[in-house]
Design goal:
Blueprint (H helix, E strand, L loop, with lengths): L5 H22 L9 H15 L25 H13 L9 H27 L1 H13 L1 H6 L6 H17 L6 H21 L7 H10 L6 H25 L9 H8 L2 H4 L20 H5 L4 H18 L3 H13 L5 H10 L4 H7 L1
Helix pairs in contact: 1-4, 1-5, 2-3, 4-5, 4-7, 7-8, 8-10, 9-10, 11-14
Length: about 350
């Protein structure tokens, strides 16, 4: 295939990718209901579109788990992205008109992920691999399904891939200033990914190795990567210090997240061991929902984190058990109930999720 035809072929694949994703949005428009995190993302986006921030109310129930606000539970990247969609489209309300534009934006994000998948493969393995990766990503059923679902991973994926691509381009930089530009870009993108999902901070480990391997080697390269990442995260950390009166780099979700898995009831679940549950769904913790309205997010988070760490101290193998069962769920090997429960939590119909499985 001549080089002259390749841009046209790539454009055709990307057009097909966006058409498939928009078609999925339209197909499920009448049945999709943004529940759980998806509904919260839309609420936060509306607050941001109106005020520039999450609600700063101190009333009971305005924080995570029924606590008093303000809130720093949800990482800000995805809500701010949806707020931008609200502002562009003119629908800054949680329901009705705001849902469809938000879902269309997921189709755009999904197509961006397809393009970046091809670019990363091109950079690593050459034109043929890049083209094959592009085609697979364009028609991958899970990628198409997620285009109609409001999940933070839709934004996380292109940011992570863009950071990887920027780090890979350092090797081919024609001058040091260009190399450092790519490194700084990788750092900013890693920071944005981390602001979307805290786990993305782990990307620093392979990215540091990638920029360090570039010639000539210099400690400035990994240092610039880390500093650019930290500076991108810093404004949100300062916001949290100002409104939460606590050092919270991104989110205060640790306590609620840990105790949801590390408790006796989750461990004893006969169908899906260590399946996460909200804290007031844990036997013996129901009364905490009545206390939550008097507590702030950091206060309830500290209490629940202490409980989770106490459970781990009494059951030292629990982290290994959790990792094992999470790995089974990752590869859809935990049984039908596990993936159906995950699909329900994301508002995916079982028939649609079955295609991905």
């Amino acid at each position: 295939m001549s080089r002259a035809l390749r841009p046209g072929l790539v454009a055709t694949i990307l057009i097909a990718a966006v058409v498939l994703r928009v078609a999925e949005v339209q197909r499920t428009d009448s049945t999709y209901r943004p529940v759980n995190d998806a509904g919260t993302y839309l609420t936060l986006a509306s607050e941001i579109a109106h005020t520039g921030d999450y609600s700063l109310s101190h009333r009971p129930g305005s924080g995570a788990g029924g606590t008093r606000g303000p809130s720093a539970y949800f990482a800000p990247g995805y809500p701010y992205f949806l707020a931008l969609v609200d502002l562009i489209d003119g629908h800054a309300v949680r329901r009705d008109g705001a849902i469809h534009p938000a879902r269309i934006s997921q189709a755009v994000l999904g197509t961006t992920t397809v393009a970046l998948t091809g670019l990363v493969a091109l950079e690593l393995f050459g034109p043929l691999a890049g083209l094959i990766a592009l085609i697979i990503a364009a028609v991958y059923p899970v990628g198409i399904e997620l285009a109609g679902t409001l999940v933070a991973e839709n934004l996380l994926a292109p940011l992570v891939l863009a950071a990887v691509y920027a780090a890979l381009r350092v090797r081919r930089a024609s001058a040091p200033v260009r190399a450092y530009g790519w490194i700084a870009g990788a750092g900013v993108l890693t920071g944005l990914a981390t602001l979307t999902h805290e786990n993305a901070a782990l990307m620093l480990v392979p990215l540091i190795a990638a920029v360090w391997a570039a010639r000539p080697r210099s400690l400035l390269a990994p240092a610039l990567l880390v500093v650019a990442t930290a500076l991108t995260i810093l404004p949100w950390t300062l916001r949290n210090q100002a409104v939460m009166h606590r050092f919270i780099p991104i989110s205060d979700e640790t306590g609620i997240t840990l105790v949801g898995a590390y408790n006796a009831a989750s461990a004893a679940n006969p169908v899906v061991p260590y399946k996460w549950r909200i804290f007031y769904g844990i036997p013996g913790e129901r009364s905490l929902i009545h206390q939550a309205g008097r507590l702030t997010e950091p206060q309830i988070g500290d209490r629940l984190q202490h409980q989770a760490l106490h459970y781990i101290s009494q059951h030292p193998s629990a982290p290994l058990d959790v990792a094992f069962h999470n790995t089974l769920r990752l590869f859809e090997l935990e049984g039908t109930y596990a993936w159906q429960a995950s699909a329900s939590a994301s508002s995916l119909p079982s028939s649609t999720a079955r295609v991905g499985v």
